[in-house]
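User: Show me a protein chain along with its predicted structure.
Assistant: Here is one chain, sequence first, then structure tokens.
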Amino acid sequence: MTGRDQPTLEPYVGLRAFRRQDSGKFFGRAREAHEVCDLWRSNQITVLSGPSGAGKTSLLNAGVMPLLDPSQNDILPVGRVSVTSSFPREALPEHNPHVYALLSSWSPGEHPSRLASLTLERFFKRRPPRQDRYGDPVLRLASIDQAEELFLGNHRRAPYHEWFLDQLVTALSKDPDLRVLISIRNDQAGAILRDERIIDVMTKGRFTLGALEPPAATQAIVGPLTGTGYSFDDAAAQRLIDDLSGDGTAPESKAIEPVQLQVVCTVLWDSLPPDVTHITTEHVIRYANVRRSLEKFVDQTIAEVARDHLDGDTARLRAWLLDNFVADSAKTPVYRGETMTAGIPNDVVAALVDHHILTPRPGVTGDDSQWYELSHESLVRLIRAEAGDVVVDRRTSQQPLHTAQHALREGDFARARRDARDALDRTDSSRLRAEIESFLGDVAFQDARYATAIDHYREAAALFDVHGRTEIVGRLLAASGRARRALGQTRRAIQDIKSAIQRVPDDQGVRIELAWTYWYGGHEDNALKTLDRVLDDDANSWPALRARAEILLHLDRTDEALLDFGRLGTIREPWVRAAHAYALARLGNLDEARNEITAVRANTAEHGPALLYAALVEQQAADLTGAADLAAAAMAAKAPPLPAHLHRLAERMADGQ
């Protein structure tokens, strides 16, 4: 920070979202905060929507959460449906990544393997109910921020968001005291609001957050200085408001974008001489010229995005924005392609959205197509202005790692590898190198490059071992074992997983991985004994029951398999429903089994074992042609692929045997 020796007095938080601890600096949204709080407590589902940069995250963290009385409400931490972690994903039981990320946010101290085995309904069943001093149950308040992450990115993840919403509605139906607040960008809000499952639960819980009206913006400027020894002259604050709200000729020009207000206030504070405590109009003109501040912000942002994604070609990025998003001195929408938008990769577009230069817009043609436009009309002028000299800092190792994680969520494995290796080249920290190697292992595993995944996991394990992180080493060895299992190296996989158990003896997930590996290698008895020991310790271990049910099913012990399926409760996971359908078919319940398979087929298009179960159901129904087609699809599936012993079964079925 420039111009200030006392950072504790800094009243503005810059361009990041306000956090819970910043609530004392958060002004201008009191009405909205109280209204959202009331809606949240009054409705099972409340949807808070608004454009990118409107301040939804800040409102939730610093405005709404402080209003809630912990003695009268059971308040979970703000949740997210995507998460980044050094924990190797492939060491976890098969799971829904959105559910796992959310539960990790809500219960950050809980064991990852345990969270990965839970549905939302099971999570809340395990959470002890609370009562107020009169003995009445208190409301459970759960929030999901940036819920648009459910619907963006890799098409392979689409089944997961369907399953996620199904779980959410089920959890709400089972717990009348549960209240869920969903914060989501405007362009993706329709995916929630038009969903019939949500409509059935939702009543009046809808709030749209817009720009700041001038009186609220004045509070956001003046309020953070309260108690700091600094103050604004009334005329100075009004000058900022006038400059930010434009000339007032158009009604929409009076509203003030929160991002632009934060930019200008931060520039003013950082530039103000240390001896100035009362800010006048002269100070505003000299140190916080709105146009100059916003032009510099736009120049800096374009340069940073170009640095991160276009090898620093700032001129190309600026020309692309002008050529495509500006027409006749007004902003114009541009259609988003599958991988490119007007000749620029979509990861660049996503970065410009994150930096509040572009904003998504619902289909302008009346369909569900995706369009983008400049986030504010004033950006037309700012982008058309002559670019100033901007020096951007060299990328830190964290920046390419962040973009790599985003690429992996979108299924862009090549970009995820490229950016993660860039991060690796930029760090001298052995701890961060370990995390990046673990991440590269996950990238390789999901791209079915299992030998490469093993190399990365073992390198990460060696680095973490130096730091004494025994638990992470154990789980990396388990992930390596799963990769070896996918390669058919069953004996070495068992060795890796047994080594993992020595380091994390209490991790049920690793023991269940050992059971799967025994079964994949043809050691059914060892598999069942391992699962029995897990269930002796935890009779309701969902992953263990699910694994034992499937193994018993393949051993023709259908009645026993159905007992374990029955103990799972309501089955939401598509691949487990498919296995259950096969069990029903084996007992002659063909209509029920085929109905079940039809219900899950849309969500298992690339899930090898689930497709094989669908083939087995059709075989039981004597539809050998349909069974052969599904078996062939199962052999081609990659998310996940068939294990070797089931691949041989699929080959026989595809050949009509």
